[in-house]
Amino acid sequence: MEKISWIKNQFGKSCFIPVGANLPTASEANSRKGISTGGKLSVAVFSITGGKSRRWEIDNIVEAIRFAASRVGNLRLVVLGRYAQEAESELKQRFLDSAVELHVMGVLPGAAVVRSLSVSDVLLFVRGPISTRRSSAIAGIACGLPVIAFEGPETAAPITEAGLAFFFTTEER
Predict the structure, then answer these.
(1) Which end of the chain has fewer CB atoms < 10 Å from its terminal CB, N or C?
(2) Which domain holds residue 148?
């Protein structure tokens, strides 16, 4: 609790609830069994920030996906949530010369978000350091996904106990 800046001096009134905020449970959505992704490993990105952060996030998405694709080959990138459609043309352009299969979904109802995350193999979270305030990352965790994210000053349990791999970049936002 001491790492979370926005609840200073209120520790006695705080507790963590490790759930995906406002999403139907994964058991209500289709299970992974029987859902085909064409034999490709599927990486989900849930939300991209608008404005000046978008370029930095797209750069990190491209870097991570190209790195993974160079090691495992067939990759499917699913981008959903806010500003996904605004980033679509740049992502298409940046993956033109690759075998990455891009699916941009945009904003979806809760059950469709859970279905999209549930058929993915990993969540790539590039919207800054992961913390308990990052509901899109928590949604991936609630859907049983390992998460690749940036570590920051508010990165603490229970997030750190949920199957994270930290992504490092040489550039700052």
Answers:
(1) C
(2) 44-166
Q: Let me know: does 110 contact 131? Beta carbons within 8 Å.
A: no
State pTM to two decimals.
0.75
Higher pLDDT, 169 or 79: 79
Q: How far apart are CA 91 and CA 104, in angstroms?
A: 9
What is the DSSP-derived secondary structure letter of residue 162? S
Residue 154 lies in a domain: yes
Distance CA 29, CA 118 (A): 8
CATH of the domain at 145: 3.40.50.2000
In degrees and rounded to multiples of 5, residue 102 shows phi and psi of -100, 130
- Please name the residues in contact with 122: beta carbons below 8 A apart, sequence gap of 6 or more: 41, 42, 43, 44, 145, 146, 147, 148
Is residue 132 situated within a structural domain?
A: yes
pLDDT tens figures, 82-91: 899 999 999 9
Task: Determine the Cα–Cα distance for residues 12 and 1; give it in Å rounded to an integer.
Answer: 10
pLDDT in tens, 49-66: 888 899 999 999 999 999
Residue % of the chain over a pLDDT of 90: 31
Q: Distance (Å, rounded) from C-alpha 95 to C-alpha 84?
A: 15
